[in-house]
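Weekly structure sync, notes
Attendees: PL (lead), two postdocs, one rotation student
Agenda item 3: pending single-chain targets
PL asked that the sequence for the first pending target be pasted directly into the notes so everyone works from the same version. It is reproduced below exactly as submitted, 341 residues in total.
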Amino acid sequence: MIELRTHDQLPAGGDRSAWELLIDEDPHATIFHSPRYLEVWHRVFGAATAVRVHTVHRDGRLIGVIPDANDRHGSAGGPEEIRRFQGGTEVTDYLGPVSRSEDRSDVAEAYVDNLARDVDWDEFVAGGLPVDSGWPDVLRRAFAAHDLTVVDDGVEDVCPRVELAGSHEAFLAGLPGRLRQELNRKTRKLARDAGDLELVRVPDDEVVGRLDAFLDQAAASIPDKAGFFQRAEMHAFFAALAEEFVHDGVFRLHELHVGGLPAASTVSLVRHGTWGLYNSAFDPTLGSLAPGMVMVNLLIGAAAEEGLEVFDLLRGDEPYKYRFGATDRPLERMVVRRDDR
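Predicted structure, written out during the meeting:
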C-alpha cells in the first residue's frame, strides 16, 4: 500500500534520519537534496514561503521525499500561488524528489495524485531535474495520467561535469592535446610571472572567518554578479552553510597562493563521490594570468587523487568549464498550469 503524508515543516528525529538514509540510496541525490541543506536555505531565504515536505511510504517504509514550497506572485489576473521544489535556483543547483531508482514511478504517481487534488496552487514549476535521473520522465507520465497540462517543457540549464580517471595525470592524459597544452602553459606562466604556486585547503576552524574575504574577491572578479555576492543575506547563507557542513568535510574553502598571496579561491561541496565546484573567485589584478583556471585544474587533481568519480562544475555553461573537457548534464524544467484557475 502506497501512502503520501504531508508535513508543514522539515522533519526531525527519526524521519530526518530516514530521509538522509534514502539520499544515500538514491544514485542521483546530492547535498542539495538533504534536509540539512534545505534547513539552511529555508532559514536564510525561505522564511516567507509556505514550506511542505511530502513523504511517500510503501507498507510503512519510506520510499520517497518531495520537498516543495509555495510563493505568491502578482499578475494581471491577481496574486498567484506558484509551487516549486524547495531550494530555488539562485543558490541550489539540483532540485527535486529523492527515492531509490526502482521507486521513482510510485513516488511520482503519489505526489502528482496529491497535487491534482490540491487546490492551493495556480502553477507548478518542476525545475532543476537532471535528465539522467529519471524524474522528468516519470513526472511527465504522472502529469498525463492525472490530466495536468504541461505548458512548458525543456532544458532549463546545464551542469558541465568531468569524469575522473583516478589521478591528475590520467585526467590530463584524457584531454584533447590542445586543452592539455593550454592548462600546462597557463600553470607554468602563472608560476613564472607571479611566484610559486600552492593549493591550500583552509582549516575547518578558519573557514567561516574567511568567507567574507572570499565573497569580496568573488564580487571583484565577477563584476556582473557583484551585487549577488555583496548581499548581506548571501554572506549569511555561506556562513550558515559552512557552519553546517564544514566539519563533515563537505564544505571546503581552498585558496591558490601565488608567491605566498591568495590569487584565487573556491568553495566546494563534496559528497557521494562528487566534487561540486560551488563558487570561485580570483584576484582581478592577476586576471591575465588565469589564476582561476590554474586553480580549477589543481582542484580536479585533488579530487582525482582523493578517489572521487566526478568533478561537477554545477550550473551554467560558462566557456571556461569546457576547457577541462567537461560535458553537459542537462537539467529539465516542466511547468504545469491548473486548467480550472
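Discussion points:
- The mean pLDDT is 93.
- The CA atoms of residues 162 and 326 lie 5 Å apart.
Action: rotation student to compare against the earlier draft before next sync.
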